[in-house]
Design goal:
The chain has helices at residues 2-28, 80-90, 101-104, 113-128, 176-186, 193-210, 233-251, 266-269, 299-302, 309-333, 351-365, 392-395; strands spanning 56-57, 60-64, 94-99, 132-137, 216-220, 259-262, 290-292, 295-296, 338-339, 341-342, 368-371, 382-384, 387-388, 399-403, 406-413, 418-424, 433-436, 446-451, 457-461, 466-470, 478-485. By secondary structure, it is of the alpha/beta class. It folds into two domains: 2-396, TIM Barrel, CATH 3.20.20.80; 418-485, no CATH class. The strands form five sheets. It has an eight-stranded parallel β-sheet. Helix 7 (233-251) links the parallel strand 5 (216-220) and strand 6.
């Protein structure tokens, strides 16, 4: 059967990707004549997600949540008090909130307004604590009709071919019925052009509902897209790019302001392989608001290895390659970057070292992120609702939330408890540079050292643990703010 042959080829392709990802990571980490260079590509002058004042936003938070994938009403486990505790424990200001097509459009052309109202209620919980919310149209393995989540049963055509759950779960993507379902959605097979049309219509309904919501920063158009029988550059530059452009155009008919985030083909980009996504067009008036939201799951970590020994070496090499590939793709897209997912089994004894490593790399790249995920359990900062896991104290960190200019660099040295943020003035940007200082490291707030001209205005909020600094502007001057714990 054709489908079985495709599944076998895809399994081989996935295995080859594991080998290639490790090889690419090794090559990326090698300089001239085999010398080892640093973990990142060096200074990176990228676009930034900005707020209404023009300040660069460095979003930091969690995914909420995996529990929404299979709950009957599509809602995550989180409660309003849980949102407050998330802020009080971690100091986050961002959430990647999972929604699903099957919930938005339970039958063709019928859109569930009650579901959207329930989502809006939870967005309001986050808004009350000062969070920005990214709505993520989530799918894994297409939809429940083929042993996944995301797409409604009415928009699933498996061609009557088998779907047997695999271990690890990602291999279920290669099952003949799953491949067939994706081929129908992408138009590789011509039987159901209405599937993609209805997906875009569902996004239009979501965007219309949240167009005026100031807590929602944007929309993640599809979680971890998978190409079915078309893979790699042929998928990303062909069906995926066409789908993204179609969805962007549809959303812009009802919402011209929110950011729209696109993801690469996950199975390769997650493991640090290059992406072939082409530049997309934003039909809105003014500067484009299209962002790039890759995920990071280095193959050794993704396969369950601990961050130690050879596994740590290969993981570091993979991360080095990932930073290079992300930078190249973002430059091609002319898009700011937001890391949509990363994480690991936090019960592993070396998990804290991996968290420190990734946070350091993200600081070097000056990008925000959402850790996977908020669901209590081994991959979470909670052992159970209301009870922080040991990794929570590692995830809690000092970081700049909003930078009133063009960011140059920032870092948090955990051993010395020193947060350093540098930026240059940018025309039209107003307001303060705001930094979050975790109470565990800064119980009395922070004292500042500013390399600049004039005296800054500062404000410390002991309830939110946010230090705001307003600096006199001077063209061409690099402002360097150093914050250490106050006595």
């Amino acid at each position: 059967m054709r489908g079985v042959g495709i599944a076998v080829r895809l399994r081989r392709w996935l295995v080859n990707l594991v080998v290639l990802a490790c090889a690419v990571g090794l090559l990326a980490a090698m300089g001239p004549k085999g010398s080892v260079v640093g973990s990142g590509p060096g200074p990176w002058h990228e676009r930034f997600i900005t707020d209404a004042q023009g300040r660069a936003l460095i979003l930091y938070g969690l995914n909420t949540s995996s529990s929404a994938k299979n709950s009957a009403d599509g809602m995550p486990w989180i409660t309003k008090p849980g949102v407050a505790q998330e802020y009080n424990t971690l100091g986050t200001d961002f959430v990647r909130y999972l929604i699903q097509w099957r919930q938005v459009e339970p039958s063709p052309g019928v859109f569930d307004q009650h579901y959207l109202a329930e989502v809006a209620q939870r967005v309001a919980w986050y808004q009350a604590k000062g969070y920005q919310v990214l709505l993520d149209m989530h799918q894994d393995v297409y939809g429940p009709a083929v042993d996944g989540n995301g797409a409604p049963a009415w928009a699933t055509d498996s061609g009557g071919q088998p779907v047997k759950p695999q271990s690890p779960w990602e291999l279920t993507y290669t099952q003949p019925g799953v491949v067939h379902a994706f081929d129908e959605f992408w138009g590789t097979r011509p039987d159901h052009p209405e599937y993609q049309q209805q997906y875009v219509a569902a996004w239009e309904q979501v965007a219309k509902y949240f167009a005026g919501n100031t807590a929602v920063i944007g929309y993640d158009l599809m979680n971890e897209p998978w190409g079915g029988s078309v893979q790699g550059p042929a998928f990303e530059s062909g069906p995926l790019a066409a789908f993204y452009q179609r969805t962007i155009d549809g959303i812009r008919t009802v919402d011209s302001s929110h950011w729209l985030f696109v993801e690469p083909e996950a199975v390769s980009a997650n493991w640090a392989m290059p992406s072939a996504l082409p530049r997309l067009t934003d039909p809105r008036s003014g500067e484009a608001r299209i962002g790039y939201a890759p995920h990071l799951y280095p193959q050794p970590i993704d396969s369950g290895s601990t961050y130690s020994g050879t596994s740590a070496f290969l993981t570091d090499r993979s991360i080095a390659s990932w930073t290079i590939q992300v930078e190249r793709t973002a430059q091609r897209l002319d898009a700011p970057v937001l890391l949509g997912e990363w994480g690991l089994d936090a019960t592993e004894p070396s998990a804290h070292l991996y968290v420190d490593k990734v946070q350091s790399v993200l600081d070097q790249m000056m990008i925000g992120e959402a850790y996977w995920s908020s669901d209590p359990g081994p991959w979470s900062p909670w052992t159970k609702p209301g009870q922080p896991a040991p990794i929570a104290s590692v995830l809690q960190t000092a970081y700049p939330r909003a930078i009133a200019g063009e960011p140059v660099s920032f870092s948090y040295d955990k051993p010395t408890l020193q947060l350093t943020v540098s930026w240059t003035d940018k025309p039209g940007v107003t307001g303060s540079t705001d930094v979050y200082l975790p109470p565990s490291d800064f119980p009395n707030g922070g004292q500042i050292d500013l390399n600049g001209v004039g005296s800054p205005l500062t404000h410390w909020n002991p309830k939110t643990h946010i230090l705001s600094v307003t600096v006199p502007k001077q063209a061409g001057l690099v402002h360097t703010l150093v914050v250490t714990p106050a006595n």
